Amino acid sequence: MGSVVRCVLVAVAAVAVLFAGGAAGGPLSTKFYDSKCPNVQSIVRAGVAQAVAAEPRMGASILRMFFHDCFVNGCDASILLDDTANFTGEKNAGPNANSVRGYEVIDAIKTQVEASCNATVSCADILALAARDAVNLLGGPTWTVQLGRRDALTASQSAANSNLPGPGSSLATLITMFANKGLSPRDMTALSGAHTLGQARCVTFRSRIYNDSNIDAAFAALRQQTCPQSGGDATLAPIDVQTPDKFDNAYYLDLMKKQGLFHSDQELFNGGSQDVLVRKYGGNAAMFAADFAKAMVKMGALLPAASTPTEVRLNCGKVN
Q1: 45, 57, 64, 68: which is the annotated catalytic residue?
Q2: Which of 3, 53, 70, 157 has an alpha carbon within 20 to 30 A of 86's alpha carbon?
């Protein structure tokens, strides 16, 4: 993995320069906390390590939370804001309700960070670091996280409902929704490899296993055993049937065998424009790891408009 990591870090530095400008609060930097909070990265990694050791699935949950944050008005920790009597946040948006999890892990890490350097590190940066560490601790690549994000003062349930691609998405929809965020089809296919980790609820893949024709029959039968045509909506199944707790390229091998769990997964390998890349990732784990890391840096540089009011939250669930 050493050569992959070195190659990733060089590419990451180049990508970051392209995407870092225009942040609410200024450009991102690898050295943002070097003097202000030098222990932040070790504190975050220790917190993620503890959570993932207790439950490997939590690594997938933190990674997904970061994706769902960044795709809605940038990586601004808006997803972490709790609903109040006069404020509706993103936690209960369709793609997030009863689905996004791990808020308590980020809260616990934030408490530790605050004890080390009060009112200094944003929740958005903690989430960005935690997503990187979750991937790496489960066997995936590492990369240098650009820092200096700030936390939103508001959130948008409507944007969460409209900006996040669902499990029934077509390839064209996926390409468009990622392009809307400045991410290429290659970035999209690499980032979809996050589905090498984690579990999904029956309700999100029921249509796939009962209605799709481009699915391995034995795989469909296996999933139907625990996901009936009605009821059991919350029953879980691994997204990657091979190694759901290990970050590897097995997801792409699943797709090549028509064993993608979501309709949107199998769309990446269904006679369309991404088939060639899926085959490459399936045969070259290092290429996938490097592309995933580069795409994570690009996604992590999605920031609110420069005019957006922001702050460093003291409690990730509420504005100061």
Answers
A1: 68
A2: 70
Segment 253-301, tens digit of pLDDT = 999 999 999 999 999 999 999 999 999 999 999 999 999 999 999 999 9
How many Å apart are CA 271 and CA 143, to the nearest integer? Answer: 32
Read off the pLDDT of residues 166-206 as tens digits, 9 standing for 90 and up.
Answer: 999 999 999 999 999 999 999 999 999 999 999 999 999 99
- 263 catalytic, yes or no? no
Residue 302 in contact with residue 182, Cβ under 8 Å?
yes
Residues 6+ apart with CB under 8 A from 106: 62, 65, 80, 123, 126, 127, 130, 316
Q: At CB < 8 A and 24+ separation, what contacts does 223-232 make? A: 223/261, 226/202, 227/202, 228/202, 232/202
As given in the structure block, the two tokens for residue 53 are 């050791």
pLDDT band at 305 (very low <50, low <70, confident <90, very high): confident
DSSP per-residue string spanning the chain:
-HHHHHHHHHHHHHHHHHH-TT-TTS--BTTTTTTT-TTHHHHHHHHHHHHHHH-THHHHHHHHHHHHHHTTTSSSSGGGPPPBTTB--STTSTTTTTT---HHHHHHHHHHHHHHSTTTS-HHHHHHHHHHHHHHHTT----PPPB---EES---HHHHHHHSPPTT--HHHHHHHHHTTT--HHHHHHHGGGGGS-EEEHHHHHHHHHH-SSS-HHHHHHHHTTS-SSS-TT-EEESSSS-TTS-SSHHHHHHHTT--SSHHHHGGGSSSTTHHHHHHHHH-HHHHHHHHHHHHHHHHT----TTS-EE--SBTTB--
Supply φ then ψ for residue 311, to 5 degrees. -155, 180
- pTM above threshold 0.85: yes
pLDDT tens for residues 122-168? 999 999 999 999 999 999 999 999 999 999 998 878 778 888 999 99
